[in-house]
């Protein structure tokens, strides 16, 4: 197997190292396409090129590994390689979530394999398990902690009494958060992963814009104290589930009791829980962030290509399911600042109301559709956290 | 796909039900071989036979599902079916652990598939993940809570302050333990699973007799109090690991800190942790006991046979590893009754000694080989628990 790499950051360099160390995989990196040819690099210069076509048009290269940040450029590389019949490995969740229908069509047309285990919860082999092991219609829900950055922040808040701002700072200083952390903190990143899993779990293509995401950026001292007072910690949970032929999905912070299985999933670890008719819940835990964890998934994808593995997307071809959130009702805590700030008529019922100088909150039931459409959700003085047993 | 079933207990009946409900799998049960034809059963009588050959010699039946208790009879059925070129699904861990070399040879000779995901931690898809996803030599250890019965007992002890005897009684009354619970309580069952995983994780055939197993049958009030005093609970942990080309394995109770990921694995749940160079630890959690959990795994195996899935045993063909426990050293707590009861010269070092009217204990380092060979280990007044960080 001859590989062509796009990008040579930490994941790419780790891959280089492992491919030279491991006995199990015989794969050579033939060429590496990079943007800045003048950077000092630990690999001889003749491996590098700045011309993508030197990889894409090289008939000796069987496998393209795409490890760059830019989503649009990544799509060009991936689709160009697939169109030329090359197998492709990528971990670019944003690009994949937005381009799944086109990428699916390209795989069908060319017969080329496109693997992206590293795009969902890094080292956790969740796509492969959904493809291979849950290949029947007994699966009812897939949810979990899909974002390492926010889990680091929330762990620091609840274990070391940091404020949100202090915890975010810690995550940034230690390389767990970008200088612009909004993709993670606001819940875009776990939502992208959710959109990918929706296809492999339930056979539905769902555009990211259709899925409610609400992050942890508005968590304040009052919310933290409220969680503590109820024996809970906070986790950012992405969730999709099926009821008969309808599939719904959303990503919200959640109160999690201290003895719940999610409470022990700390720092950069991710967890995915599957529920099915027979097995009740099953949980996969592993590192969800970091170059090594992603490199591990990329390596396993490369390894699988040795025996011509591809995703079959069986759920999509089998299924009569469709995306429909109209019947989903959530129980939520809505913290706000003043009377009239949130619309009571949006709620199906309200079971608790609290008013003080520090904050107001309601606990009540609301449909996912109403929550998603609510103008008050955009008000930075409002925070929403799910209560779920 | 036409199935022939051996045994029609709870798993078999659950399978019948699901196969008639699910859209994903089109598989018909054609015939069911049972021992007692006169029992009342919820399925028409013409499905049943007491003659194994009516299944084994039926050319229309592609897949044999073996769901009986008796290990010797199960081996006859499985080997008979494989020899006739039929695919086989089984969950009989005792039979498989003891007969792996013969069963492997039969698969190689006949080309027939033999799947047994249900034999290891029931609903957790660990064999398939080891086969497919960890197909490179970066894996360093596989360990976990492999037995549901003992985990129910230990959970009851630590969560509800029951004694060992009371907790065992609870497990028996609620169907989590057999009337003769020794296979579970003494650690045979998790050891059988460990022997199966040793082949799929590290490519070594290990006879169960070679592996130290020590259960929880000797846990007394003093041990429980000791665990509590150190902020720990007890879990029965089976473990195998690789160092260079040497693989070692054992099954021992372990002190587990209350915030450790294993502490939240409670009641009939099992957990498997994998450690590898790239992904650090990854954990799979799911129901490890019960008819539904086993049925779930059996069903997934049947489903995989639709696309001609078989175990490749790649680690065995790739690997230069061998089973060798000579360099393994453990840190253990050894509770005993009186001076001179355990042999001090067996220990590499002893870091704590405690003597009272209630009990004595030592904490020290001992080689796995010496522990395995120690005559004092057979003394019912001695209990051994591992301390591991």
Question: Can you give a write-up of this model?
Answer:
The structure is a homodimer of 389-residue chains. The first copy, chain A, is of the alpha/beta class and 389 residues long. The first copy, chain A, has three domains: 2-115, NAD(P)-binding Rossmann-like Domain (Rossmann fold, 3-Layer(aba) Sandwich); 125-287 and 318-323, Dihydrodipicolinate Reductase, domain 2 (2-Layer Sandwich), CATH 3.30.360.10; 326-389, Alpha-Beta Plaits (2-Layer Sandwich), CATH 3.30.70. Chain A has helices at 10-21, 53-56, 71-83, 93-110, 126-132, 148-160, 164-173, 182-185, 188-202, 221-229, 291-305, 314-318, 368-373, and strands at 2-6, 28-33, 48-49, 63-66, 87-90, 114-115, 139-145, 212-213, 232-243, 246-257, 269-276, 280-287, 322-323, 329-336, 347-355, 360-367, 383-387. In chain A, the strands form two sheets. In chain A, strands 7, 8, 9, 10, 11, 12, 13, 14, 15, 16 and 17 form an eleven-stranded mixed β-sheet that branches. In chain A, a hairpin with a 4-residue loop joins strand 15 (347-355) and strand 16 (360-367). In chain A, helix 3 (71-83) runs parallel beside helix 4. The first copy, chain A, is globular, with a radius of gyration of 22 Å. The interface between A and B is large, with 49 and 50 residues.
Features:
homodimer, 389 residues, alpha/beta, Rossmann fold, Dihydrodipicolinate Reductase, domain 2, Alpha-Beta Plaits, 3 domains, eleven-stranded mixed beta sheet, six-stranded parallel beta sheet, 34% helix, 27% strand
